[in-house]
Amino acid sequence: GGGDAGGAAGGGGDGVKWMWGLFLALTLLHVYANWRGVVALQLHTLNRHRADIVLDLFAHASEGSPIIITPENVARREQNEWRGLFQRLLTENRRVQLGLPLMSICDTRQSLRDLESQFNEERYLLGPLLAYPESLGVVFKQGATPRDQLQAYLHARLVLSQRRSPRSTDGPAPYIASVKSSIAFTLQRIRADRNLIFCALESGGWNLDRVFLGSSAWRFSLQTSGLKEL
């Protein structure tokens, strides 16, 4: 009798393990099927991953040839780059933060004046985060549009593509100075190329009136910023 009971208990344990194994396998299959369905879509709106692909395609386009970047081209790249998606979510996306309060990148009145002068043609300000200079923060001005969000994000990614992580022997001040220098240099480039980029995207069928870049709704204006401490 005891042996039969022990056998029944053992069989029950094997059954539970089998059910959990089946549940895990079906869950993974479900997630994989969902992912395949999503990447098969040719979406006409830009998120961060698709915006990164657009920037890369634009950077490697043949000089002098017409540039048209279509959702089909980007969708093919998305399907081939899914393995790096989790790394992007955990690390790369944190390096560009959109829609931050002014105090995240600016702590003095002089630094505010410098940023306002530098970005006088844009509806955003861009600078290294005061708390974590390896990341870039974007402060949007009142009236910023989805196109401004896209330009700011592409600008920040362009800066990061030219920057290396600071060595342990580097002090924070030299690194921050080099980042600000890169921001100024790439600002001239993004100003020169933005109309071409937007034209290439619109010709390809992208909807630039809606972007999904993870920006907050916070906007900056001199009248409402409350910069009494600056």
Summarize the structure.
The chain is mostly helical and 230 residues long. Helix content is 54%, strand content 7%.
Q: What do you see in this structure?
A:
By secondary structure, this protein is mostly helical. It has one domain. The protein is 54% helix and 7% strand. The protein has seven helices and five strands. A three-stranded mixed sheet has the order 2-4-3. A two-stranded parallel ribbon has the order 1-5. The protein is globular, with a radius of gyration of 24 Å. The chain starts with a helix and ends in an 18-residue tail after the last strand.
* Largest sheet composition: 3 strands, mixed
Structure classification: mainly alpha
Our estimate of the beta-strand percent is: 5-15%
Tell me the radius of gyration. 24 Å
Quaternary structure type? single chain
The number of E-state strands comes to 5
Low-confidence stretches are none
Spatial arrangement of strands, main beta sheet: 2-4-3
How many angstroms does the end-to-end distance come to? 83 Å
Can you tell me the number of structural domains? 1
Backbone shape: globular
Helical stretch tally: 7
In which range does the helix fraction lie? 40-55%
What is the N-to-C succession of helices and strands? Answer: HEHHHEHEEHHE
Q: What is the average of the pLDDT values?
A: 83
GO cellular component, one term: membrane
Domain Root UVB sensitive protein C-terminal: 78-220
Main location: membrane
InterPro entries: RUS_fam, UVB_sens_C, UVB_sens_RUS_dom
